[in-house]
């Protein structure tokens, strides 16, 4: 919001006809650029094809609907939850409980406090996407059990079982769970009994990670498909012709 207001002041000084709209459009463009050129290469690997064009311009594809799928939303929530850390360093004070900060508005009610928290979270880099959720965010009733809630949502939204996703990504033979190491494969089969019954999220998040991506094969392909769809179908995407005028 501070950056938006700063840009509005600049646009007003330049006598732009709609400074608030111009500032909003510029911030969205900056956010999109960071997402596709910094965030996604770190998450999916530097070789990910979902990047901005070197030419800097593109034409939206009218047949592509920039919709977000339920499967992506659930997977993204769980991926980000697995990166949460229980503690953070703020103003050189280590091991401050992050959940305690989120539950106390007095600790985030000024720009100075927010800046200190942000700096601390940037200093203490996020954990890598893993197969566990920090206990503070898993077992506390204020947050509920993230894994259980998202797994139930997957069934509620009718997300296909993991077996179907193996066919979608051409990871065959699916019944052999080819993307899992022996330990995780045995755990899944022991718990579910039948490979055809394995849930989407447990199956996808327990895959081996062997490449530059922080995700397994299934989630990497799902994330690339989703972000590419948004990139190609959004008529307001920042690289599109006539979005930004010189």
From TrEMBL:
Pfam family, one: An_peroxidase
Record-level GO BP terms: response to oxidative stress
Alphabetical UniProt keywords: Glycoprotein, Secreted
UniProt main location, coarse: secreted
Keyword check for Lipoprotein: no
One Gene Ontology molecular-function label: peroxidase activity
Protein name: Eosinophil peroxidase-like
Compartmental location: Secreted
CC annotations in GO: extracellular region
InterPro entries: Haem_peroxidase_animal (IPR019791), Haem_peroxidase_sf (IPR010255), Haem_peroxidase_sf_animal (IPR037120)
Domain of life from the UniProt record: Eukaryota
